Amino acid sequence: MRLSSLFILAGLVLLAVSCSKDKLNPALSDTAGQEPMSKAEMDQLVERFLEEQNTPYRWETATTRMLWSASVRSDSVMALGYQPAGAQDVLGRIHEIDPNSGAWAAAREKLVRFVVEETNKEYPGLNARAEDLFLNLDRQYLPTLDVRIFSQRIIEALLKMPEVRYLEPMGYTLGEIEQRSDSGCDVQAASSIPSADYTTTAPSVKVPWNFYYSNIPTAWNTSTGAGIKVALIDTGTPPPANQPKLGSQFNSGYSSGRSLERLGTHISGWWWWASNDGPNDQCGHGTQMAGLIAAPRGSGGASVGAAYNCNLKAFRATTDVVVNGSSEKAGVRDALYLSGSDGAVKIVSMSIGDVFYSSTVADGIIYAYNSGKLLIAAAGTSLTWTSWWGVIFPANMSQTVAVTGIQDAPYYTRCNTCHSGPEVDFVIVMQRASNTDRTSLTLAPTGNQPAYVGGSSAATATTAGIAALVWATNPSQSRTQVLNRLKQAAQIYPSRSSEFGWGLIDAAAAVN
User: Fold this and answer.
1) Which of 204, 213, 275, 290 could form a disulfide with 299 if both were Cys (CB 3.0 to 4.6 A apart)?
2) Is residue 190 part of a domain?
3) CA 45 from chain center: how many Å?
4) Residue 239 CB neighbours (<10 A)
């Protein structure tokens, strides 16, 4: 059967690339008879690029052999960006393009037919069909395809075609990061919280200590974020029964009349049996970010969000904070498209990223940006072995507002795991200098007892909440007007730091 044959082929690819040279299947060699590069070789090249360029790795710098090697040493899924031959300024008008019409559909069909025919030429008897090699051909919202490619010869041929904008491995990740694939997860409520780390306000919620550095509680006298919808692209939110503050109690106490949408764009499972994971957070990170942005000002002693009256559209697009799997890249891209297409969404918060630039995710970023959304992204949170890598993707893009975290004293000392650099726009105080385990407070996956959360992730979600407070004072404002108000209320403005941008935002000044 076709599906079983393709399943066997995928397995042979993974098996063959792990074997010694004399056992390598010749059908999996490139046109010069080379075997795939080792993961160690590729990791070394990537790490050298990161060290020398201090910017996320771009696959356009790789040789075709490395593209092929990275593909078959992961899951063989590649992102294929397409266009009609001779098309101009695709990214500038990506929000206006209908990939199912006219020349766009014709270009896609040409590429699909080419990959299917060439795959069957290279692997006789496979009888692969388009639906075997391409995922979701029936759901084309952006001019990009997710495709399985096993051959370097096909990669080389595609890159020469005028209909191809880019061709990149989607599932490859550095070995060091792969070993920490659960980054940001395993969230638990704090066993105890010193009284200095919060204040209590009516009806009965905890205000995190660090909110006062940005004058968020004072800003509530003017704005609570009412009427503004924030999209959160992360690991999802918990089942409403587990955390009622993001369920039946989302509208409670001083929080009322707002909406909560929970969506899933992450796909798991093998290619042909893949299924949508749904909206439920299986990590805990998305729950924490949702809490920082929008936790209600209710009762029970839980922590409150920076914009406790905003609307929330929460996506499960990733399994953790590192966007390093093919299904994660597709999930984030699709969430960006849905956020960009939602006219009510004003702000998109992304406390996620990677050290690889992803063109298919960038398509989603630019689509949402061109649709007028304010995109706020984490500059990066790592252990010491990666903190020198600079600002990660997508926070390094000009279309995003990059945020990082700093300690409470002395000012402008970045948090011990935070990235900084010239792309950073704002900072949030979110860590005690005297005890780096004492960070901001937010919702835990269950119960009212808050959890600690830090890094540029917490700084990003908090900034998204502040932006909602500002936008709510005049919902007809443009993104540029809101961003200018945030800048003008920042501590360093009109100067700009090479590490911390315009600095710490005074939310009370910004809303007024």
Assistant:
1) 204
2) no
3) 24
4) 16
Please check whether residue 21 lies inside any domain of the structure: yes
Decide the pairing of beta strands 374-378 and 400-407: parallel
pLDDT at 3 over 60: no
Residue in this structure with the two tokens 């939110």, named with its chain if needed: 237
Name the pTM for this structure. Answer: 0.94
Instruction: Give dist(CA 164, CA 181) in Å, integer.
Output: 31
Which tens digit of pLDDT belongs to each residue from 92-121? 999 999 999 999 999 999 999 999 999 999
For 366-417, what is each residue's pLDDT tens digit? 999 999 999 999 999 876 555 556 899 999 999 999 999 999 988 899 999 9
How far is the C-alpha of 426 from the C-alpha of 374, rounded, in Å?
14
Tokens 């995109």 sit on residue: 375
Q: What is the mean pLDDT of residues 77-87?
A: 97
* Burial track 265-302 (b if 16+ CB lie within 10 A, e otherwise): bbbbeebeeeeebebbbbbbbbbbbbbbbbbbbbebeb
Average pLDDT of the residues in 408-433: 94
d(CA 339, CA 368): 7
Q: Total structural domains in the chain?
A: 2
Angle formed by the axes of helices 359-370 and 326-341, nearest 10°: 10
Helices 2-17, 64-72: axis angle to 10 degrees equals 110
Average pLDDT of the chain, as a whole number? 91
Domain containing residue 36? 2-171
CB 42, CB 175: distance < 8 Å? no
Pairing of strands 77-82, 451-453: unpaired
Using the 3D structure, point to which of 151, 171, 191 is the last residue of a domain.
171
Domain boundary among 171, 190, 207: 171
Q: Which of 416, 456, 448 is CA-nearest to residue 432?
A: 416
> Model confidence over 185-205: pLDDT tens digits?
989 999 999 999 999 999 999
- Structure-token pair, residue 307: 């914009």
Identity of the amino acid at 352: I
Q: Is pLDDT at 175 greater than 80 in this prediction?
A: no
Helices 39-53 and 64-72, packing angle to 10 deg: 120
Q: Give the pLDDT score at 4.
A: 45
pLDDT of residue 406: 97
